[in-house]
Amino acid sequence: MKDIKGHFLNEALFSEITGINYITYDRLRADAYTTGYIRMEKKNSEFFQIPYGKTDKNYYILGGYAYGNLKYPISRNELLHNISSDEIYADVITEEGEQFPAVAIRSYGKGTVFYVNLPLGYLKAYSDDFILRTFLRTFLFKVVKIPHLQNTRDGKGGLVINWHIDSSIDWKSIPFMLEKEYLRKGIDYSFHITAGDFRDKPGDSLGFDACGKGRSFTETLLNYGIIGSHGGWAHNWFPGNVQNGNFGKKEIYEYIKKNNECLESITGYKMIEYAAPNGVHPQPVTTEALEELGFLAYYYTGDTGSAPNRTFLDGKMVSEKVFAFPILTFEKFASLLEMKQAGKTEDEVKRWFIETLDYIVKNRTVRLIYSHPYDIPLYPDAFKSFLDYAEQLRATDNIEIKSMSYFAEFLNRFLKTKFTFKREGRKLIAVLKNPEGLDGITVAIPKKNHKKPTSADISIQEDEDYYYISIKGNLNEKNIYVDAL
Question: Which residue among 37, 62, 94, 133 is least packed, with the fewest CB closer than 10 Å?
Answer without folding.
Answer: 94
